[in-house]
Amino acid sequence: MKELRLVCILALLGFLIGCSSSSNDDDEMLPPYNNNNEALIAAQNYFNGSLKPIIDSKCVTCHEGKHNKNDAFNFGVFNNARNSADNMYNQVNSGKMPKDAGKLPQSEIDKFKEFMDLVDKI
Length: 122
Ligand code: HEC
Fold this sequence. Notes:
The chain is mainly α.
């Protein structure tokens, strides 16, 4: 009788340990995925709401017209802008882009910087 009780207690302990360790694994897996997703959505929203209007009016005259739609330098497409976020900021901040035109106002340069920072968090 004593042995049976011991077996039951051991079985129960094993069950509890198994449950708690597997739920810990889940907790460790979820936050990074959620954060990445939130950072991606934040960068996409910022691109569509704040940066794309500037790119559409000041950049795509050359960057879409001279290249085809799938070209990496078509910055009106989020993935291309994301891949060139640093490069775009450096070009507008140094005044090299938009080519053959005056330097962008600081408020617009700041938006390229903000986008670059958001992309860094993805
Ligand atoms: C008048 C045409 C024109 C406009 C407008 C223009 N670009 Fe460019 N851009 C070019 C050309 C041409 C190149 C190829 C390199 C060169 O000739 O300087 C280029 C190259 C670039 C590069 C790559 C630079 C490198 O050396 O890696 C980036 C990034 C860039 N442009 C960003 C922009 C952004 C952002 C805007 C809008 C604010 C913009 N460009 C507006 C013509 C233009």
